[in-house]
């Protein structure tokens, strides 16, 4: 069985790319961008370079303006023709973009390509923002965005002495649940916000069955919006017997979040951490601890 394992290392690969100095001005920035990966696209827009994006992939769903752009396919299953037809000056791609043969075809066609890591941890998320900003000539905007994120993180309340247990789940094949373990953005985010990731015994995303759900005993179950229908909706989750046997099921604690906010450490990571922190504090209040 294959498990999804997010990248552990911090590495920015800049391939076939003319050097982008930190002093690059917006006048010299690429005019036509194709972005591959929801976090990459969201970051480009957060930096104020959205008007330069001419096409994205189907995982790019934020901000709403991206829905009007042509789609070149899912970033893990790309075809070169769609990207080439957009005539980009620069392609910004997630580390998981592919297949490799397609990326090689882009390089062979003379397309400038920047492949970026997919965070966590937080330091790598901030470094990714800086790397994208350097490529699109938005260094000042990146400094302002990073400062805003850092201020949001610093403003988080202290973690409670008894941290609630959080389980982030997404839909898997055949309705099977997949849980976010350590080294995943979702796992890192719930920890940052003051909870325990109850699935931290494994890395990446792994299937969890009924026995495991009962054993993990989460106080809250967090679901990305796009996965909710696959899991039977909020009621379907709560009606699952194994969930009903957990503190989360007994207190009906199911939180549905914007998919990119919970599954990726992008430019809204500070907002996501604040939102989660408020829910976790509410759990403590409800339990009287």
UniProtKB/TrEMBL annotation:
The keyword Nucleotide-binding does not apply. This is Putative Hemin-binding periplasmic protein HmuT,putative. Keywords: Signal. InterPro entries: ABC_Transporter_SBP (IPR050902), ABC_transptr_periplasmic_BD (IPR002491), Vit_B12_bind_prot (IPR054828). Residues 1-23 form the signal peptide. It comes from the Bacteria. Residues 32-287 form the Fe/B12 periplasmic-binding domain. Pfam families: Peripla_BP_2.
């Amino acid at each position: 069985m294959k498990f999804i394992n997010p990248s552990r290392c911090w590495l920015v690969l800049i391939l076939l790319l003319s050097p982008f100095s930190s002093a690059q001005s917006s006048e010299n920035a690429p005019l036509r961008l194709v972005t591959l990966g929801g976090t990459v696209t969201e970051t480009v827009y957060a930096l104020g370079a959205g008007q330069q994006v001419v096409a994205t992939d189907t995982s790019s769903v934020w901000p709403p303006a991206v829905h009007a752009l042509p789609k070149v396919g899912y970033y893990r299953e790309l075809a070169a023709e769609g990207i080439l037809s957009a005539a980009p000056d620069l392609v910004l791609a997630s580390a998981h973009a592919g297949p490799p043969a397609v990326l090689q075809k882009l390089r062979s066609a003379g397309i400038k390509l920047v492949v970026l890591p997919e965070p966590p941890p937080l330091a790598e998320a901030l470094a990714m923002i800086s790397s994208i900003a350097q490529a699109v000539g938005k260094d000042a905007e990146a400094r302002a965005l990073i400062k805003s994120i850092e201020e949001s993180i610093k403003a988080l309340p202290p973690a409670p002495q008894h941290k609630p247990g959080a389980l982030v789940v997404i839909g898997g094949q055949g309705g099977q649940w997949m849980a976010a373990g350590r080294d995943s953005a979702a796992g890192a985010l719930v920890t940052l916000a003051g909870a325990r990731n109850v699935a931290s015994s494994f890395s990446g995303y792994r299937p969890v069955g009924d026995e495991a759900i009962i054993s993990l005993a989460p106080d809250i179950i967090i679901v990305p919006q796009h996965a909710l229908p696959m899991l039977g909706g909020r009621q379907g989750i709560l009606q699952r017997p194994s969930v009903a046997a957990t503190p989360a099921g007994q207190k009906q604690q199911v939180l549905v979040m914007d998919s990119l906010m919970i599954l990726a450490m992008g430019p809204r990571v500070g907002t996501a951490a604040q939102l989660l922190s408020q829910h976790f504090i509410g759990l403590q209040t409800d339990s009287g601890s």
